[in-house]
Design a protein that fits this description.
Layout: H1 4-8, H2 16-30, H3 39-56, H4 59-82, H5 93-102, H6 106-120, H7 131-147, H8 151-167, H9 174-192, H10 196-208, H11 213-229, H12 233-246, H13 254-259
């Protein structure tokens, strides 16, 4: 699990002022524009810093995160005690994935998981681990993929986690947290999408998850821009009109309004 406190270099009892100070210092150092030689790594670190800041500055999210962190500390210690060497080792490869995730070795965890996927298709973790460990592993794998910028894989695992949660609840507020993360993942996928039909699918998923009017309006604006790029003017205008119906003061929309001759919306 990503340790947001370590990412920001602050104590677990850090005040909001200390967290904000650490955040401001770090973003100046790792911003991708200031690291042109390794933008990919800088982008990954920048995303991790922003995610840590957003979590720790929100009282509700921080309380949930601290609960998870304490829980995972205990689980990591248990897995370490159960681990062995050679043929007597008690941990399966699925348990090793969870152990790596809990220790912050997300690249190694993803590597092992993808090797298992090649062997077994898309394994349902609940069929290979006890239910508690499987749910934690699923959630942390999704988080790992999200941290690595692999949003399609993250979305698939968060969606599966939601499905499991609805069928057999794990603990309070878990659904709320997964939905919050899925909204962010869908927004990233919308930004990356070059196919209008796929963008529309992500918008529908955002609506289903209860995205805010502003969030969904932004998504429709992105869709309008994509339709315009493909020369589908009627669809572009319909999408932009829908965006302004949801959010009449939609920021960043002047350019597309002018391109489509819809300045009256501004």
């Amino acid at each position: 699990m990503t340790d947001h406190y370590k990412v920001l270099g602050v104590d677990r009892k850090a005040t909001k002022a200390q967290i904000k100070s650490a955040f401001r210092r770090l973003v100046k150092q790792v911003h991708p524009d200031k690291n042109p030689k390794d933008k990919e790594e800088a982008s990954r670190r920048f995303r991790a810093i922003v995610a840590a800041y957003e979590t720790l500055m929100d009282d509700r999210k921080r309380a949930f995160y601290d609960h998870m962190l304490s829980k995972y500390d205990l689980k990591r210690d248990r897995l370490r005690k159960e681990s062995g060497v050679g043929p007597s080792a008690k941990l399966s490869r699925f348990d090793l994935i969870l152990s790596d995730l809990l220790s912050g070795r997300i690249e190694e965890a993803v590597r092992v998981y993808e090797a298992l996927k090649r062997e077994m298709g898309n394994p349902d973790l609940t069929e290979h681990m006890n239910y508690s460990d499987a749910r934690d592993c699923e959630f942390l794998l999704a988080e790992a993929y999200q941290t690595l910028g692999r949003y399609e894989e993250a979305a698939r695992l968060y969606e599966r986690s939601l499905e499991h949660e609805r069928n057999r609840p794990y603990f309070n507020r878990f659904t709320e947290e997964v939905i919050s993360r899925l909204k962010k993942v869908y927004s990233h996928l919308l930004t990356q999408s070059r196919v209008p039909e796929i963008s529309l699918l992500y918008i529908q998923r955002l609506v289903f998850l209860g995205g805010s009017k502003r969030q969904i309006a932004w998504a429709y604006k992105k869709l309008a821009e994509l339709y315009f790029e493909f020369g589908q003017m009627e669809n572009a205008r319909k999408s932009l009109k829908k965006a302004f119906e949801l959010c009449p003061r939609l920021p960043g929309s002047k350019r597309i309004c002018r391109k489509l001759g819809m300045e009256h919306l501004l």
